Each structure stands twice: as C-alpha cells, then as structure tokens.
Amino acid sequence: MKRNEIVFLVFSLLMAAAVGGLLGDIIGEFLPDGAAKTLFQKHLSIGFSPSTLDLFSINFTLGLMFNINFVSVLFMVMVIIYFRWWYI
User: pTM to 2 decimals?
Assistant: First the structure.
C-alpha cells in the first residue's frame, strides 16, 4: 500500500466515525423511548479526558476523547468494505 492510500483510509475512517456519530445522535432524538433509541444514542467513550496544567502565564490543556456509537461503527465498516473493494 502506498502512503497516500493509508492517509486516505485513516482520514476516511475518522470522517465516517464523526458523521456516523452525528447522524446516530440525530436519528436517536426522533425515536421513541425503547431499544432502538438506546441503540442509536448509547456511545462508548475511548480516550482520556482533558487535563490542564496551569502555570503562571501559560495554560496547557491536553485531552482526546472518541465517542463511538452504533452508526459510527456501521459507517466505519462501510468505509473498510469500500476500501477493500476499490483499492485491493
């Protein structure tokens, strides 16, 4: 695999996770209470919460958190299938 293809795959996976997460939350807002709403709105948080180092005149904040839900996983699987079909 070329470096450009790997960069494209990583970028596509990140975009699929972001768009899928947003779409899952939007769909979950319109569903009535029940299993389907839970499936679309429940997410898994991966990463670490922001921590701040406060020096006198400089503040450093470092943190990275991914919230992955069902639709974002579905979109990421679709990107992987597309990538395998198109590039391999």
Answer: 0.76
